[in-house]
Each structure stands twice: as structure tokens, then as C-alpha cells.
Amino acid sequence: MTSRANGGETSASTMPRTGSPTRHAVEVLLVEDNPTDVEFALRALRGRGLRNHFVVARDGAEALDYLFARGAHAGRDASELPTLVLLDLRLPNVDGIEVLRIIKSDERTKAIPVIVLTSSRQDDDRTRCDALGANGYIVKPVDLEKLVHAVSEIGYCWMLLDESAC
Questions:
Q1: Residue 114: phi, psi to the nearest 5?
Q2: pLDDT reading at 106 higher than 90
């Protein structure tokens, strides 16, 4: 089930949607199948002043359904895209490499920054992610400082965290 998180998780279909993301209402798609890693990421970012809404997809197919407003998300406004995708590579149904390939090859989504958060230390994975257009690659366990740096490098730190943290 895809859920939104901002202090807790709620079904995406019950959350009110606002217009385009703004400096104070940023949406981040976290694609992660491990509940412990989801909670760690959210807790770590909250500890740094998180003020965003997260949409959590538990596998690659669910992430793609959310992005392209299909399947369980067919009623969602497909023009309202997340500002950032945090993507695990080792996912059920559709793996993270394929999700990244689809995001970066589709005109509607290719401009969305994608930061890969993975346990994979394989050079081949990093090389493939770089070739597909990933904007960052961070090996788990996620070091929050590395995440902040990766997000800062693509100019999005102010959207995720209080300006004083950037």
C-alpha cells in the first residue's frame, strides 16, 4: 500500500492533494520495501527538521503506478509529481534499476531527481545507476549527512530540510 508520511502513515487516497509542490509543501516518493529502513529514513529526516510529505511505495510496481497514476492510483492527478524520489534498488515486483530506467526515459518524469538508497556496494549497480541518470547513490545504512549532501548537490536541500541544516 502506498502511504503518505508526515508524522505517521496514511493511505494516499485519503490525503488531500494540494496544487504543485511549493517550498513549504514538497512531496518525496520513498520507494522502499523494508519497513525498518522506511522508519529510519523518516525518523532521521524528521530529526533534521523534515517538513515534507512523503509518499511511501513498498515495491517498484507500486512506485510506477503512483508516478503514472495507474492501477490503484488511477484517480490521482498524474501532473502532480513528486519533487524527489528516494529509491531502493532491491525491490520486489519491479527492481529499482528498472524503476530508474523508466523514470529517466519518460518525458513526464525524467526531470525528477532520483537518489538511490541501497545496500548494494557493487560497482556494476552504481555504474548502471549513473548511466541511467541517477542524481545520487548512497549505500545503506543511510548516513543522513551523505543524504543531505546528495540532495544539496542537486539543489534540493532547502526543500527537504530547514534552511539552517543545508
A1: -125, 125
A2: yes
Which of 109, 83, 69, 85 is CA-nearest to residue 19? Answer: 83
Our CA dihedral for 127, 128, 133, 138, rounded to 10 degrees, sits at: -60
Residue 140 has pLDDT above 80, yes or no: no
Query: CA–CA separation, 121 vs 99, rounded Å?
Result: 19
What is the spatial distance between Cα 136 and Cα 98, in angstroms, rounded to a whole number?
16
Phi-psi region of 7 (alpha: psi -120 to 50; beta: other; left: phi over 0): left
The whole-model pTM stands at: 0.76
- Mean pLDDT value of segment 57-74: 96
CA torsion angle 154 93 12 29 (round to 10) = -10
Domains of the chain: 3-12+23-165 (3.40.50.2300)
How far apart (Å, rounded) are the C-alpha atoms in residues 25 and 51?
8
